[in-house]
Give the backbone structure.
Amino acid sequence: MKDLFENNCDVVSDLLPLYADGCCSARTARLIQTHLSACKSCNKKYAGIKKSLKNTHITDIPNSDPDFLGIVIKLRRRRTVKNTILSLTVLAALTSTLLLAVTHG
Ligand SMILES: [Zn+2]
């Protein structure tokens, strides 16, 4: 798999958004890190992605191409869904604990 990442900027740049968002496996992350340490072009892309992920207002990113914005928006939406599910799960757990406490004295 190492060969796949070496000198293969296409594969790495496809995975950069996932890597920046911390969504890829530890092994993939290591391979991407190795590639980034040797590849200026991917490093530049990665810096851009990280910067965009930090931005609160996605539409304010200057000169970003629509494909890239689409990826960022997708990642943010997925994160929001994940957070919503987590909140609802916690809420459900709290509610059932409260109900148990009330009904069983
Ligand atoms: Zn590269």
